[in-house]
Amino acid sequence: MGASRKTARFSFRRMAACGVVLALLFLLVVSATAVAMAVRDMKHEADLSLAAAQPRIESRITGTFNLLESLAEQPTLYDPSVPIMDKVNMIDQVNEHFGYYLICYVDMNIDVWDATGPASLASRDYMQQVYSTGERTSPTASLPEPTAPRSTTPWSCRCATSRAP
Fold first, then answer.
1. Do 64 and 58 meet the contact criterion of CB atoms below 8 Å apart?
2. How many CB atoms are closer than 10 A to CB 63?
3. Are the CB atoms for 119 and 112 separated by under 8 Å?
4. DSSP secondary structure of the chain
5. Percent of the chain at pLDDT above 90?
6. 30 vs 123, residue with greater confidence
7. 55-64, pLDDT tens digit by residue?
8. What pTM, to 2 d.p., does this model score?
């Protein structure tokens, strides 16, 4: 009779262990669901942010190219009688006024001038392409297209150099 009593007896210890395991499983499921929902919401918010920022970014890029193209049409930049450092100072004023810091003067030897002096970019394929065709091409052309729609506006860019237009 003692043996049947032990098997028929209710085990609080076993029941407590099962309760703890079920509680942990419940917390794990709730946490996983919360993480999945948070990731979904963050992706949605990122897509909305990107869609809202795209027109501003495109406008800024358009404005930058307009500035560069109008700067490239300045006769002072093509005048060989104007010292290079005067041209550099003029471009530095444009940088300061419009908040840029890497617009520089490029001479016929594809030397890029700033206030510290020249640096040669003649060996770079991108600069050779720009100089030979007079049009810019994207150095990121080999990258995959983004999922958001992009503007199909064609761009051409004349570089501010010392060669005649």
1. no
2. 11
3. yes
4. -HHHHHHHS--HHHHHHHHHHHHHHHHHHHHHHHHHHHHHHHHHHHHHHHHHHHHHHHHHHHHHHHHHHHHHT-GGGT-TTS-HHHHHHHHHHHHHHHT-S---EE-TT-EEEETTEEEE-TT-HHHHHHHHHSS---TTTTSPPPSS------------BSS--
5. 36
6. 30
7. 999 998 998 8
8. 0.49
Phi, psi values for residue 142, rounded to 5°: -85, -5
**Whole-number pLDDT of residue 23:** 96
Range 2-41 burial, b when 16+ CB lie within 10 A, else e = eeeeeeeeeeeeeeeeeeeeeeeeeeeeeeeeeeeeeeee
